[in-house]
From TrEMBL:
Belongs to the metallo-dependent hydrolases superfamily. DHOase family. Class I DHOase subfamily. This is Dihydroorotase. One of its GO terms (biological process) is 'de novo' UMP biosynthetic process. It catalyses: (S)-dihydroorotate + H2O = N-carbamoyl-L-aspartate + H(+). GO terms for cellular component: cytoplasm. Residues 47-234 form the Dihydroorotase catalytic domain. GO terms for molecular function: allantoinase activity; dihydroorotase activity; zinc ion binding. Its EC number is 3.5.2.3.
């Protein structure tokens, strides 16, 4: 294993120092380090963050390898500065058995670009009728700890309670896609002024807020852990704030696109802006940004959702919801938050690693810590060209936008997966 000496790098915004990486860990830190056997990297002007961790990634394999594979998604993640991603269960077949989650886990290990941690389905086939094999997935080689029917809400309160009770035994987490389905039938975008003007069926904010309110009460009653996926409304923020003040074991995520884009994008009728939950209003965006800074929302998660051309380049009503996110998330965070490095490290690495129970991830560079880290050039700006993305899909809402920050290098247990902004394999 090659040793690396990174000279004059800022660790999470602190004063420049040297980092020596050897045998998969940060062996030494300090000024003026030397190591004759090490490959030297110039870290001047760069910031070293703990490797990013994404709690919400769609890798599409098995079943939709035309849109993404575990390998291509892992490469996109590494180029985005990630060292671990949690792969959602809405594959084909659905990841609702030990066999399927182990398949995804092994494909991630074979790719070797990021740690791929499968998320298991809550219900069989994501159908909301009966619990999936939660215990078997938890006991599998993949050691699943997060379960979600993302894309579908666990709408039955009795089933949701049973799921929360079941995973409590092994400190698992139910990650809920908060959407009351009876309030969103035929919905095409956020319900509001823009949807009325465009004549598109609206997705009301209360459909999200009602499920979150119900589920925090269930989680409080059971004493179990709840995670709320892709929070998108100001009302949801208030429900979460109240729940956290009462000590409910609830965490929440927000996506980069919900921090930046609004429902006004739908006026173009470009299906790249169709997503679930939908883009909301400027008022919602402001509330989400404030909640992220405050800690009411714990993490940024990409909801990276690649789609084949035929599923996005069509009429709005027929387009699949979802956007790419892995290769642009850190840039959006910098654009929204500015260079608040400690906050970015907390929201994009430390907190998601804690929620997912990913040992070895989410730790700032220090002697003895696994060398999972990313080097960022905050002074660089880049224009997003869809054809240059590593994902197999091209449905990015940031096409031709110029964004701050560039990932210079990513290390997974001391091995570079990205160097000089390019994947190493």
């Amino acid at each position: 294993m090659t040793a690396y000496l990174i000279k004059s790098v800022s660790v999470v915004g602190a004063a420049p120092t040297d980092l020596l990486i050897r045998d998969g860990v940060v062996a030494e830190t300090g000024a003026g380090l030397t190591a004759p056997d090490a490959t030297v990297l110039d870290g001047t002007g760069l910031v070293a963050l703990p490797g990013l961790v994404d709690l919400h990634t769609h890798l599409r394999e098995p079943g939709r390898e035309d849109a993404e594979t575990v390998e291509s998604g892992s490469r996109a993640a590494a180029l985005g500065g990630y060292t671990a991603v949690c792969a959602m269960a809405n594959t084909s077949p659905v990841a609702d058995t030990a066999g399927v989650v182990e398949q995804v886990w092994r494909l991630g290990r074979e790719a070797g670009l990021v740690d791929v941690q499968p998320i298991g389905a809550v219900t069989v086939g994501l159908a909301g009728g009966q619990l999936a094999e939660l215990g078997a997935m938890a006991d599998s080689a993949a050691r699943v700890r997060i379960f979600s029917d993302d894309g579908h809400c666990v709408a039955d309160p009795k089933l949701m309670r049973r799921a929360l009770e079941y995973v409590k035994a092994f400190d698992g987490v139910i990650a809920q896609h908060a959407e009351e389905p009876r309030l969103t039938e035929g919905a095409q975008m956020h319900e509001g002024e823009v949807s009325t003007r465009l004549g598109l069926t609206g997705w009301p904010a209360v459909a999200e807020e009602a499920i979150i309110a119900r589920d925090v009460l269930l989680a409080e009653h059971v004493g179990s852990r709840l995670h709320v996926c892709h929070v998108s409304t100001a009302g949801s923020v208030e429900v979460l704030r109240h729940a956290k003040a009462r000590g409910v074991k609830v965490t929440a995520e927000v996506t980069p696109h919900h921090l930046l884009l609004t429902d006004a994008k739908a006026e173009t009728y470009d299906p790249v802006y169709k997503v679930n939950p939908p883009l909301r209003t400027a008022t919602d965006v402001a509330a989400l940004r404030a909640a992220l800074a405050e800690g009411v929302i714990d993490i940024i998660a990409t909801d990276h959702a690649p789609h084949a051309v035929e599923d996005k380049e069509c009429e709005w009503a027929y387009a699949r919801p979802g956007m790419l996110g892995l290769e642009t998330a850190l840039s959006i965070a910098l654009d929204v938050l500015g260079p608040q490095w400690d906050l970015i490290a907390e929201r994009m690495s430390r907190a998601p690693a804690r929620i997912a129970g990913l040992d070895g991830h989410g730790a700032d560079a220090a002697p003895g810590v696994p060398a999972n880290l990313t080097l960022v050039d905050p002074a660089a700006r880049r224009t997003i060209e869809p054809a240059e993305l590593a994902s197999r899909s091209r449905n990015t809402p940031y096409a031709r936008m110029t964004l701050p920050g560039r990932i210079v290098a990513t290390f997974l247990r001391g091995e570079p997966t990205v160097l000089d902004g390019k994947a190493t394999k």
